[in-house]
Amino acid sequence: MIENMFGKSAFSNSSLGSTSQPTQSQISQSILPLKSTRILSASTLKQLLEIFSENRCVVVDFTNATCGPCNFMDPEFERVVEERESLVGVKVETAVAFEIASEYGVVATPTFMLFLDGVKIEEVKGASVRGLESAVDILLFTAYPPHPHTRIEMATLTALVPLTTKVWPSGLITYPVNTPVDKIFSKLFQFVSEIKEPVIALDAITSTLNEIQSMLSKLKIVQVPAMWDAVFDGLVKGLGVEKMWPLLDVLRLCLLLEPFQIHYSGDSANGLLEVIRRLAAVETKAVRLMLLRLVANLLSSKIMAETLLSMKREVMQGVTFRNVATTVIIEGLLSTDSTVRQCAASATLDVAIVDAYVRAGGELEIGCDNDLLIEWRCEVLAAVVQAFQLEVDPEIELRLLATFGKFVLLGDAEVLQVAQVLEVKEIVNGKKWDESSIAGKLKMEIIKLLDCEF
To answer: Which residues are tagged catalytic?
Structure first.
């Protein structure tokens, strides 16, 4: 659906066991993962307390290898843990872990104890699968009460940009080949031939670009050419700002392919982000468009999003990768050119989708604490509000409206308070759309999200 709404951009969807007594060597003496990294074993109280200190929700299975009901419950215990996120299971073999069994007064197996922040809150005795499931669900509900937004019907917002934490978001707007590759390289080779004092041999530039052109024509990068970083750096220095756009065009296509994504998740990312930082305020339309499309394509994979949105990695002291991306997007949103603003709105929506993925529990290593993340969300939200108020293009308005929805959905209390101060509800409500249109339906859903009481 989002493809139809947002134009031509492409969118990257039983045995009872042995009756012999277990020996000390048969049972782990350290905290060892069993079949899952979320199912551990502990044989000393110190080990168990360490697990409590590192995990909020823990369910402990006091078991015994010679116990028939225990053997029946073992796979059920593992299933219950595996099916629920934010939960860690610990198996304690009472025939060996005397200290733990004594500390918690365990006299029969199987016994299941549930802990929240190290404090026991529930106990289930016997081979009751339903009893265990119910107790675990109550534990998780107590630790992580559902966000009030989960009670609101959001069919339009969900259809436009589906929310998932199992896989990388599918609703991201990316920019694949929209101009024949040969034409892009023809212009790039023309600009290369005009470089008066190349800092790298022209034959090295030509052979490297020919290699990439061949691979891009087949939409398959086997590997990043050995000379690529040197050639890219040399072209950045030799082309000049006004003639940089075909190089950026080539790179944004490369970034849709895995070898380049892996390459730029490493040290090479520093040079790339420095180039993006230097070009952020450039007024040349072609350069700004390619820069924004490049940013959008950088978000197409988890590994690249972790790089682009990192709040730990810096291009220079005090300027993080995320700062650079944010500057590019905000500058684009406030451009006087509608084509640039549309591209910036698409990149902003991508950022909002990725951020919603994180808030919903998706894993993304960006190296920051929650306070910094909330501050960043408020900064971007303020920029989107300013752009939305000035915007008159319906297609750009729809992208920004969807961005509001993704930033507000499951939002932190601080972000929602900023939305209230910025009068987001009033601004959104002031835009007039047919109630049966996508924009009209989306508008009503956003207003419900903003009206929701915590």
So the answer is: 67, 70
